[in-house]
Amino acid sequence: MLVLTRKKDQTIVIGDNIEVTILDIQGDQVRVGIKAPKSVSVHRKEIYEEIQEENRKAAQFKGTSLNDIFKK
Amino acid sequence: MMLDTKHFGQIEIDENGILEFPEGIPGFENVKKFVLLGSSEGSSLFQWLQGVDNAEIALVLIEPKRLWPDYVVDVDDAEVEVLGINADSKVLVFSVVVVPDDIEKMTANLRAPILINTENKKGKQVIIEKNLYGIKHYIMEDLRKIEGG
């Protein structure tokens, strides 16, 4: 992992079309602005990982008769 | 064409129904082609998103608007650009359902709906950045309300 030190309002450029700017620093919280092409999805890692996990769990279901669970 | 499915064995599907997910879906980023199963009359509550080249990958889906008519997908234009949605597009919205052994604990992921543009057959699972809906939303109680079960 490349480690860089940046101050408020300074930017990192990734490739030729992604910019990451440090907008504000308050204690242990950092606000980050990200400028990226529309084709690049940007998400908080923990949310993306939770969704991966839910999808994997959803794919583990083995039954088929879900549409019958409310039939009397 | 014939398709191997996880739950329904080998079935005949219409190739025109194959959906392209250019980015795959989280957890299955390499699976780019899916079909919707169980939706012939659009009446069944649960449907399946079946991987075309990956028989073992099938996710249970529900249409959240059938349970929660006020459900809104609020995402950036950039998030849905890959879907090529225009004013005439008909977009289907699904939530991925996790069915545990104890069916009472069934949950739907309302935070990350799957959108499908029926016109160009493009699909994507988007993430709603605003924290309005849960990733694990319990649904049995609401299902009973609409099913009268």
Walk me through what this model shows.
The complex is a heterodimer of chains A (72) and B (149). Chain A is an alpha+beta fold and 72 residues long. Chain A has one helix at residues 45-58, and strands spanning 11-14, 18-26, 29-35. Chain A has a 3-stranded antiparallel β-sheet with strand order 1-2-3, with no helix packed on it. Chain B has a single domain (2-147), classed as BH3618-like (Roll). Chain B is globular and about 40 Å long. Chain B starts with a strand and ends with a helix. The model of chain B has no long low-confidence stretch (mean pLDDT 90). The A-B interface holds A 38-39, 41, 43, 47-48, 50-59, 61-64, 66-67, 69-70, 72 and B 7-8, 23, 25-28, 38, 44-46, 56-60, 77-79, 81-82, 96-100, 103, 107, 109, 111-112, 125, 127, 129, 135-136, 143-144, 147-149.
Question: Given the helix and strand composition of chain B, which structural class is it?
Answer: mainly beta
Give the ordered list of helices and strands of chain B. Answer: EEEEEEHHEEEEH
**If helices are DSSP runs of H or I spanning 4 or more residues, what is the number of helices of chain B?**
3
CATH class group of chain B: Mainly Beta
Which architecture of chain B per CATH?
Roll
In total, how many domains does the architecture of chain B comprise? Answer: 1
Q: Give the integer mean of the pLDDT values of chain A.
A: 88
**Average pLDDT reading of chain B:** 90
Strand content of chain B: 25-35%
N-to-C SSE string of chain A, H for helix and E for strand: EEEH
How much helix, percentage-wise, in residues of chain B? 10-25%
* Main β sheet profile of chain B: 8 strands, antiparallel
State the fourth-level CATH superfamily of chain B.
BH3618-like
The outline of chain A comes out as elongated
Distance between the termini of chain A: 58 Å
Helical fraction of chain A = 10-25%
The overall strand count of chain A is 3
Strand elements of chain B, count: 10
Distance between the termini of chain B: 37 Å
Order of strands in the sheet with the most strands of chain A? 1-2-3
